[in-house]
Amino acid sequence: MDMPKPTEAHRRLETLVGAWRGEEKMPPSRWAPQGNVSSGRSTARLALDGFAAIVDYEQENGGRITFRGHGVYTYDVNDGCYVLHWFDCMGGRPEEFRGTFDGETLTMMRSGPEGQFRLTWRYAGDRMTHTMEMAPDGKQWTTLMEGAYTRERR
Q1: Can you give the C-alpha Rg of the chain in angstroms?
Q2: How confident is the model at residue 32, as a pLDDT?
Q3: 1 located within any domain
Q4: Domain count, the chain
Q5: DSSP alpha helices (H): ranges in the chain?
Q6: Closest Cα partner for 10 from 53, 66, 64, 69?
Q7: What is the CATH number of the domain that holds 18?
Q8: Per-residue pLDDT tens digits of the chain, which is 154 residues long
Q9: Backbone angles phi, psi at 45, to 5 degrees
Q10: Which domain holds residue 70?
C-alpha cells in the first residue's frame, strides 16, 4: 500500500516554517490593562511527513517570558480548511481555529462564550504580520494584538 502524500494545500503549511522574531503591540484590554509592547518569537517546523506544522511561541516583556503557546496546524481535506489546535500557559482547554489561505494571507477564526476570535497572518517572503482580534457580537472587531516579525532562519 502506498502511503498518502501531502496535497498542495498541505504544502502551503511550509509558509509558516522558520524561526520568527518581532515586536508585538497590545492596546489596553482586560489582558493588558495599560497596553504594552513585547517581543514575540516562534519556531515552526513541518511534522508528520508534511501533513502538519508545529509552532512553539513565547512572548517576552521586561526581560521575562510572559506567555507561552504551542500550535498544531493541519489541513482538513474533508472541510477544505486549515485547522489550528492551540495550547497555552493560560491553563484553559485547547482552542480550535479554522480558516483559509487567500493568497499569502492565512485567516482563522473560532467562536466561544466570549464571542468570536480572528487570527490573521500576512506573509511576504521573510516578513510576516499577525493580528489577533475579538468581536463579542461577531460584528464589531477589536484588535487585541498586532505583531510584525522577521524570519531569522528556515
Answers
A1: 16
A2: 77
A3: no
A4: 1
A5: 8-11
A6: 53
A7: 2.40.128.20
A8: 788 899 999 999 999 999 999 999 999 887 778 888 999 999 999 999 999 999 999 999 999 999 999 999 999 999 999 999 999 998 888 999 999 999 999 999 999 888 999 999 999 999 999 999 999 888 899 999 999 999 998 8
A9: -140, 155
A10: 8-153
Between the alpha carbon of residue 13 and those of residues 46, 54, 83, 117, the distances in Å are 8, 10, 11, 21
Q: How many CA atoms lie within 13 A of 48 on its CB side?
A: 13
What grid cell was written down for 87? 495550547
On whether residue 15 sits in a domain, the answer given is yes
Let me know if residue 84 belongs to a domain: yes
Amino acid letter at 40?
G
Query: Residue 8 has what DSSP assignment?
Result: H
pLDDT at 44 (0 to 100) = 98
**Residue 78: count of CB within 10 angstroms of its CB:** 5
Q: What is the pLDDT of residue 102?
A: 96
Gap between the Cα atoms of 97 and 86, Å rounded: 8
Number of CB atoms found within 10 A of residue 26's CB: 20
Residue 68 CB neighbours (<10 A): 13
Could you tell me the pTM of the whole model?
0.93
How many residues are given for the chain?
A: 154
The three three-digit cell numbers of residue 106, written as one number? 492565512
Residue 94 lies in a domain: yes
- What's the grid cell of residue 47? 511534522
